Amino acid sequence: SYHFTPGGAMLESGAHALGCTVFRGGTGQTEQQLEAMIDLRPDGYVGTPSFLKIILEKADERRLTVPSLRKALLSGEAVPASFRDALGGRGIRAHQVYATADVGSIAYESDAREGLIVDEGVLVEIVRAGTGDPVAAGEVGEVVVTLLRNRDYPLIRFGTGDLSAIVPSSLSAASPCGRTNMRIKGWMGRADQTTKVKGMFVHPSQVAAIVARHPGIAKARLVVDNPKGADTMTLHVEVSDGDSSPREAIVASIREVTKLRGEVTIRAPGELANDGKVIDDVRRYD
């Protein structure tokens, strides 16, 4: 049910190559998927951390367990240390993989958990966004990738728009697991105002599309947060005097345009900051 999501197809083909039996999942129908996991007894989960969290919380709510689940490969979002610890408390060993639809696998985590090891099939640079100039090891910049092995789909210095940083020690010493390639710190946000929520990109143009549906909105800012470890979206809007756009209609527009749930907060004219921000990602991953 991940339909048009390229990452789902990529990971499924890899799982089949390893001889795994794959049960396709995806957002929605959480209870049915939980029941299927209990019946089919998978020992691994591959997907976003947020959806795994939803499934496990639903199991807790129904006082059910998925005792067969012992491994998780997480991607599409940042993985907070608190969530990894929570999975460990359930007996689930989790690892991250950083990938994009254009490139495929870029970096992956080993049991050493000292950064993500750059895949052998790509060359990764960390550059200053907007200039393309490499930054010093440890400094946060945009991830730029060159494919080394795919002659049918050449990509040279492809800007992912994602932020990360080189783990300085990886330039002079191997990982404790024995891997010698460079390591990066994983996904640390976006270089532009585009962001990811529950594994889905949200663009400033989508906020503009929502505003265009409601002429009474004079100004808008989408705030993305993660209280209690769960991603949330709230569209803060300044409305014109006499605007009759019901809050429910704006909420429905958010869902239709972004395919994600969001809330709406009405602000007084002139209350939103005049700083050019359309999307404000205030999530913390402590």
Provide tags for this entry.
286 residues; Rossmann fold; Luciferase, domain 3; GMP Synthetase, Chain A, domain 3; 3 domains; four-stranded mixed β-sheet; 15 strands; globular
CATH hierarchy: architecture of the largest domain: 3-Layer(aba) Sandwich
Radius of gyration, CA atoms, in whole angstroms:
21 Å
User: What does the average pLDDT come to?
Assistant: 89
Q: Termini distance?
A: 32 Å
Main sheet strand line-up = 1-2-3-4-5-9
The CATH topology of the largest domain comes to: Rossmann fold
Main β-sheet, in a few words? 6 strands, mixed
Number of helices: 6
Low-confidence stretches at least 5 residues in length (pLDDT < 50)? none
**Strand percentage:** 25-35%
The top-level CATH class of the largest domain is Alpha Beta
Strand segment count: 15
The general outline is globular
Helix residue percentage: 10-25%
Give the tally of structural domains.
Answer: 3
Q: H/E series, N to C?
A: HHEHEHEEEEEEEEEHEEHEE
What structural class is derived from the secondary structure elements?
alpha/beta
Question: Can you walk me through this structure?
Answer:
By secondary structure, the chain is an alpha/beta fold. Helix content is about 25%, strand content about 25%. It folds into three domains: about 1-100, 3-Layer(aba) Sandwich (Rossmann fold); about 115-190, Luciferase, Domain 3 (Luciferase, domain 3); about 195-280, GMP Synthetase, Chain A, domain 3 (2-Layer Sandwich), CATH 3.30.300.30. The chain has helices spanning about 5-15, 30-40, 50-60, 80-90, 205-210, 245-260; strands at about 45, 70-75, 95-100, 105-110, 115-120, 120-125, 140-145, 160-165, 185, 195, 200, 215-225, 230-240, 265, 280. The strands form four sheets. It has a six-stranded mixed beta sheet with strand order 1-2-3-4-5-9. A hairpin with a 6-residue loop joins β12 and β13 (about 230-240). α2 (about 30-40) crosses α3 (about 50-60) and α5 (about 205-210) crosses α6 (about 245-260). The radius of gyration is 21 Å and the shape is globular. The model has no long low-confidence stretch (mean pLDDT about 90).
